[in-house]
Amino acid sequence: MQILTPHLRHYRGAIVGAVITIIIAAACTLIQPRMLQYILDSLLKNDRQAMFRDSIILILLAVIGVIAGILNVYFAAKIAQGTTSDLRAQTYRKIQSFSLSNIEKFSAGTLVVRLINDMNQVLNIVMTTFMQILRIPIMMVGAFVMGIVTMPRFWWVQIVMLVAVAGVIVLTFPKLGKLFDGFQKNLDQSNMIAKEALQGIRVVKSFNQQEREAKNYDAVSDQMNTLNIKIGYMFSTLFPAFFLVCDAGITLVIYLVGKNIVNAPGELAAITSYIGYLMQLLFTLAFGGMTMAMYARGFISLGRIKEVLETKPDLTFDPNAPKQALSGDVEFDDVSFAYPNAKDETLKHVSFKVKQGETIGIIGATGSGKSTLAQLMTRLYDPTAGTVKVGGVDLKHVNESSLRKAVALVLQKALLFSGTIADNLRQGDRKATPTDFKWATDIAQASEFVEQYTDLYEHQVEERSANLSGGQKQRLSIARGVVRKPKVLILDDSTSALDARSEKKVKEALEQKLNDTTLFIIAEKIFSVMDADRILVLDQGEVKAFDTHEKLLETSELYREIYQTQRAKGGEAK
Ligand SMILES: Nc1ncnc2c1ncn2[C@@H]1O[C@H](COP(=O)(O)OP(=O)(O)OP(=O)(O)O)[C@@H](O)[C@H]1O
């Protein structure tokens, strides 16, 4: 609950309102059986004036109780909506601060479930807290005391019933908690499966995998179903058990008092009132039980959100690092790197130095560590050993915005966000103007298709950029990378969907318009990098050679081999 406390502070007024209205509503409910007793007494004594007065009071109490109840729901909803929305924003900000490995450890699917489903459970418990949590003790103590005051000799009936209901709760609740926990984990999994299958719907359909995906989903769905049935089964026995205790108590009192009612008719009013209190007590207990069941579920959700909030981002930027204009010099000094949970190192003792303005090709077989190298240059991960420097500054001590300003990474998989083209380009530079958009899209060879849209940069990019071709997506993501005029630009196989002519034009434009920028071109095809100033040859995470194309042909056996193999396949034609 402590993760909610800072947010609750913002709703002090509504909390006071909720507490006052709940006390008023509970008090009104508690006085009603007593008023009924007075009315019956007056009826038996034929005191019409008292009966009329008490009936008016009873109606007034009921009206006040209803108004207080309505206001209580209003205040409780205000607190619950407000705190949950603040907590959701805090959790989302926290997730944004996570490193890639933090996100991989949780998995994106469970983070989404925590933000939506678990947050709804939290909303329920906050709402219930301010509607019920104070009401339950007030009603329990109040109905218990009023019951004893009304018929002192039956105090033990209430005790017996309290013990019976407490027994039911103790027996069932630990089990319910476990079932809710399992249900939540299944929900995470089903969400992950559905998300993956829907995002990859083209692959699923083209490989005719609908049946397999449906079976995967069915398996998790069946588990959820089983758990749901078990939860339903527990509830279906829990409530009859509560009501059984309730009815047994009432029957017992009627039997005990009924025996003497002929001798003491004056007790009729008291017994009516007593039964009223007994019912209030037992219904409050039953309701309390239901509330606790909801709490059991809500607390598990709260725990899952707490886990996110308490996770320390395993890569943070020093907030006191001075802002500076970093140059495009890049240095790797004996860098090794292993992904979290991976046994082997992906990069091993990588060392090289690059001067601002150089064009560097990075070549290597699939899985040789090229993208990993790029991700270390942008500090998406920290090296396990060694140092990465940009502009002479160790990235572990760099100012975050200085690094982001200096280095742009255009990913292998072009990812655009729904919104306008301008929104996407502004992710590269918040202050970019239409003139900057034109400059960047010209370099990325994107102007030719953007200018066909009547609304130009205001053209909408649909969810998962479904209305753009692979090549168009790549061009726009290159434009997003260049728009900030970075000192270091990394193209991670990001021209693969471009035809040879466009790829050549992009490179020429980059050389002309960003000639002061250090350019890294990552590729598997040697012909994409052989014009670079120098080429770094990676093999299983190790730098095998680093030189010009001509020198590498002379000195590097591996490079020569790649070159000859690709030339034999006709790659040079490209
Ligand atoms: N997030 C990750 N967690 C664990 N291992 C990873 C992760 N990303 C990549 N790897 C592993 O690291 C190795 C290098 O991957 P990387 O993507 O850097 O290779 P690459 O040379 O860019 O390959 P490609 O040309 O196919 O893109 C691979 O064996 C890959 O399985």
Automatic annotation (TrEMBL):
Source species taxonomy: Bacteria, Bacillati, Bacillota, Bacilli, Lactobacillales
GO molecular function, one term: ATP binding
Keyword Nucleotide-binding recorded: yes
UniProt-annotated location(s): Cell membrane
Domain ABC transporter: 330-565
Segments passing through the bilayer: 12-35, 55-77, 122-149, 155-173, 233-257, 277-296
Keywords: ATP-binding, Membrane, Nucleotide-binding, Transmembrane, Transmembrane helix
Name of the protein described by the UniProt record: ABC transporter ATP-binding protein
Native source organism of the sequence: Ligilactobacillus faecis
Pfam family, one: ABC_tran
All copies of domain ABC transmembrane type-1, residue ranges: 16-297
Membrane topology listed for this record: Multi-pass membrane protein
Keyword Nuclease recorded: no
InterPro entries membership: AAA+_ATPase, ABC1_TM_dom, ABC1_TM_sf, ABC_transporter-like_ATP-bd, ABC_transporter-like_CS, P-loop_NTPase, Type_1_exporter
